[in-house]
Write a structure and sequence with these properties.
Layout: E1 8-14, H1 21-28, E2 49-54, E3 60-65, H2 76-89, E4 96-102, H3 108-121, E5 129-134, H4 136-142, H5 146-151, H6 155-163, E6 168-170, H7 181-197, H8 206-228, H9 235-248, H10 252-267, H11 273-280
Parallel strand pairs: 1-3, 1-4, 4-5, 5-6
Antiparallel strand pairs: 2-3
Helix pairs in contact: 8-10, 10-11
InterPro entries: G_AIG1, GIMA/IAN/Toc, P-loop_NTPase
Protein name: AIG1-type G domain-containing protein
GO molecular function: GTP binding
């Protein structure tokens, strides 16, 4: 949810479990501990979380980290909860989805992940996807550019890059915060390019529209409650209060799920099978 007077850049990190999404989030936020991260391929992130950075140019960078949302080893109920949480945290919509891959390996599961993303959020979502390769140091060791790496990669990866409009970059997250500043700046620049190419707009669909409606209602309710108590919070503080509840309280997700279902019905948009299954978990 954007705050008045300050321009937000919202990104959602997606990708297979263990590909370095949390490490990328920490690099973007110039921090080692914004998101829990480990060097192993084991997932530490168990639910969607959000953090932000007030950038020197006056903009606010908002990063939503996700677990392996399409990991077949995770129960349908948990996946459904986290998808709704992701939509709520990224409200009113992300300016880019950063699809995190490893330079070292590419599997069919990566292709499945991007297919699931497109199935859930619609074909237009591909206009907002940037592929970010982790382990840039591997390319440096092999004395290869990213473009050379892609040319010698499986056809499936080349096709994936094409589906994303050729938008790709790489980063080394295995360094101290700030040491990879050129890589971070390259990613932010790509996000700005995506934003510009989409008319300055963030990605929105029925599910994000619904989340924003619920968010605004909760904001107004919080204002009224605080007024009764003779208290006052800034818009930042109220926003953070609601976001923290979304992060930590599964109960609030029911409200967002119902809002998503209601918006699909109200707008007459196709209630896709995937979302029908997701919403059914909350009934």
């Amino acid at each position: 949810m954007a705050t008045s007077g300050i321009e937000e850049i919202r990104v959602v990190l997606v990708g297979k479990t263990g590909r370095g999404k949390s490490a990328l989030g920490n690099s973007l936020l110039r921090s080692k501990h914004s998101f829990k991260s480990a060097a192993s391929g084991e997932s530490i992130t168990s639910r969607c979380t959000i953090n932000h950075l007030d950038m020197q140019n006056g903009k606010k960078l908002v990063v939503v980290d996700t677990p392996g949302l399409f990991d077949t080893r995770v129960s349908n109920a948990k996946t459904s909860r986290e998808l709704v949480r992701c939509v709520a945290l990224a409200s009113p919509g992300p300016h880019a989805f950063l699809f995190v891959l490893s330079v070292d390996r590419f599997t069919k599961e990566e292709l499945d992940t991007i297919d699931h993303l497109q199935e859930l959020f619609g074909n237009d979502v591909m206009n907002f996807v940037i592929v970010v390769f982790n382990h840039k140091d591997t390319l440096e060791y092999e004395e290869k550019t990213l473009e050379e790496h892609i040319q010698s990669s499986p056809q499936g990866l080349q096709n994936l890059i094409r589906r994303c409009g050729g938008r790709m970059t790489t980063i080394n997250n295995r360094v101290q915060p700030g040491s990879n500043e050129p890589d971070v700046n390259a990613i932010i620049s790509l996000v700005e390019q995506v934003k510009h190419s989409n008319g300055g707009n963030y990605y929105t669909e029925a599910m994000f529209e619904a989340a924003e409606e619920v968010f605004q209602t909760k904001l107004e309710n919080l204002k009224a409650e605080l007024a009764k108590q003779g208290k006052r919070l800034t818009e930042y503080e109220m926003r953070d209060t609601i976001l923290k509840e979304v992060e930590e309280n599964d109960g609030i997700l029911v409200t967002f799920a119902k809002g998503i279902e209601k918006t699909f019905v109200k707008t007459g948009k196709a209630f896709k099978g995937a979302w029908r299954t997701i919403i059914s978990v909350f009934k």
